[in-house]
Amino acid sequence: MNIFEQYESEVRGYCRNFPAVFSSAKGAWMTDTGGQRYLDFFSGAGVLNYGHNNDRIKQPLIRYLLGDGITHTLDMYSEAKQRFIQRFNDVVLKPRGLSYKFQFPGPTGTNAVEAALKLARKVTGRQTVVNFTNAFHGMTLGSLAVTGNSFKRAGAGVPLHHTAAVPFEGYLGEEIDTLEYLEAMLIDSGSGMEIPAAVIVETVQAEGGVNVASQDWLKRLRDITKQHDILLIVDDIQVGCGRTGAFFSFEDAGIEPDIITLSKSLSGYGLPLALVLMKPELDLWSPGEHNGTFRGHCPAFVTATAALDFWTDNALEMSVRKKSKLVERRLNAMVQDQEIEADVRGRGLIWGVEFTDRAMATQVSKACFERGLIIETAGIDDQVLKLLPSLTIDEADLNHGLDIIEQSMQAIAQADTAQIS
């Protein structure tokens, strides 16, 4: 029994799928204590969009720490925070014609979601929040209430109230328009649904199985929320910060959410940092009404500011879009060539392969790890193989990882065929 098994809680998860002790990492690669190198198609569940130990982000952090830059300020003013707010406005918001107030609620994504939900209820005076099937928004009680996964929800141990789940696009099949269902519920006084405070949505449901909302669906959702005076919250925690190509995942749909939640790759370096962006007229907080001890994490402000250098032009966005086409083409070729029943879907550099044989994704993930590739699964039954490489990965490494996936799929498919024979 190793020290982790002896002392760490049974709640640990990813280590069971990737049983190695890692000691260092650079770019798209991780190395364990035995010197074994692994190509990373996991990226810390979307935390490491710019890869491991990116020098453009690491060096400003080192200089800041060596200069005795302040590390913790709660929500007192700091030079590091000042620089981040200014840089984010200059590089991200103003060029897109966007205007938002900033709230730093605490260190993680679920802190941002909790703050967004609380703010929406405060502003509107309503209680209900509409969420979508297969959504995942976090592990604290408010976030769990708008999460679809029954296993995660059951962990709360108490009833989760004041939410209404409706079908995400495609949940009921291609022929059923789920937004017609939502709008009918809002219009019909006999539906049992009161006008909610907000609708919260992921443009791509990452943990839910890489379920991709179309741009038309997102536009219509924005129109419906406006017509009924409902706030729209876009949870961009996992698929924002360039994961779909543009900095915000909703940009291609041409919509402006009322509230946006960001975390994961916001700091650019794996340091905890979360942000709620709200339309200025929604900022009705009283001082101290919502707070958190680690809402002033200055080292994360430093790395987040440095990461914004990737967004001063469209080079990274165009690179992600190019790589996206490569991944889509190769994944489709794999399942077709090997006659595997599966659905390939995604945007940017988040892609999923949902296998008809629901056990296959886990088997392929395990086979990939044995061949030196870290890749996770997603979906309610872990039936989706989920690709999440860093945005900065070079095409040679990207193709190498795709080669391993192809080899692993083939090995599992052949083993299944032999077992049937």
* Overall average pLDDT: 96
Major sheet details:
7 strands, mixed
Under CATH, the homologous superfamily of the largest domain reads: Type I PLP-dependent aspartate aminotransferase-like (Major domain)
Please state the oligomeric state of the protein chains shown: single chain
- The end-to-end span amounts to 39 Å
Proportion of β residues?
15-25%
Poorly predicted ranges: none
Instruction: Record the strand order, biggest sheet.
Output: 4-12-11-10-7-5-6
CATH architecture heading of the largest domain: 3-Layer(aba) Sandwich
Assign the structural class, choosing from mainly alpha, mainly beta, alpha/beta, alpha+beta, or little secondary structure. alpha/beta
EC number: 2.6.1.76
InterPro entries: Aminotrans_3, Aminotrans_3_PPA_site, Dat, Ectoine_EctB, PyrdxlP-dep_Trfase, PyrdxlP-dep_Trfase_major, PyrdxlP-dep_Trfase_small
GO molecular function: diaminobutyrate-2-oxoglutarate transaminase activity
Pfam families: Aminotran_3
